[in-house]
Amino acid sequence: MKPVVYIDGKEGTTGLQIFERLGSREDIELILIDEDKRKDTQERKKFINAADIVFLCLPDAAAREAVALCENPNTRFIDASTAHRTHPDWDYGFPELSAAHRAAIATSKRVANPGCHASGFISSVYPLVKLGIVPPDYPLTCSSLTGYSGGGKKLIAEYEDVNRDPRHESHRIYGLTLKHKHLPEMTHVCGLAAAPVFVPILGDFYKGMASTVMLHNRLLPGAPTAQDIHAKLADYYADQTMVNVMPFGGEEPVIYSDTMAGRDSLELIVCGHEEQTIVTALFDNLGKGASGAAVQNMNLMLGFDETTGLTK
């Protein structure tokens, strides 16, 4: 019997992207709620309890409410919201971080899908902390340039409006309070003593993301060079399919933030010299930063090849 899958919140950007990746698959049964009943609590409850896997593509409060509707002990959730990313009863859905993460996802009933900016930061910082290269109390900084699709339908409409604010042609820095909603998971998952200084930047392109962590090598134990850090990261992710470390310095002297648009994998580019290092995570904010990662987690939970239905 095919596993039954339901997307609660299919009409949003993340939900639509998940549906796009699952709609033509024949190894699952995708059940669809009637359009006029998608906000009917009792109808949603019926679908949630009928499913083996439920994707939650909802605001935080609605995601928590959806979990509370579940009475079927066999229903498993993948939550794309920020609601459960630091919750002790939920497993963090980034399988490449460690064998323990991968094993936990495979058997989990509750998987919290990573945030987009957080995915970029954590892919660089988690292994560096685990390997002892970056101390947990190191004063980390990160900038992250994203396409506007990550802001959902309202922001997409704003950027694609022919009468839009002409300033949208330039990148804009936001999150100026330095309290972005992804900071708790960045700090918690990486085991940091304090949150990084994090600056998100919105660009005039639909999708793609470049998250860059900056390091002063002299402040790191043993003062490793940028090439030393590259070698450690390349070794750490050597056996992974959906996270790849590129040759030192990248393949050209610039990095374009939409390089991975349309793909579900993530690339790390390490640049620098003896005294300073930057590590840039390149990925699609709707791919490895959201819907692609969610489908990868579903594949692992169901015992499928993790790349099924995805574009590497």
Automatic annotation (TrEMBL):
The active site is at C116. Its EC number is 1.2.1.38. The keyword Zinc does not apply. GO terms for cellular component: cytoplasm. Residues 4-105 form the Semialdehyde dehydrogenase NAD-binding domain. Keywords: Amino-acid biosynthesis, Arginine biosynthesis, Cytoplasm, NADP, Oxidoreductase. CDD domains: AGPR_2_C, AGPR_2_N. Its main location: cytoplasm. NCBIfam families: argC_other (TIGR01851). Catalyzes the NADPH-dependent reduction of N-acetyl-5-glutamyl phosphate to yield N-acetyl-L-glutamate 5-semialdehyde. This is N-acetyl-gamma-glutamyl-phosphate reductase. It comes from Butyricicoccus porcorum. The gene is argC.
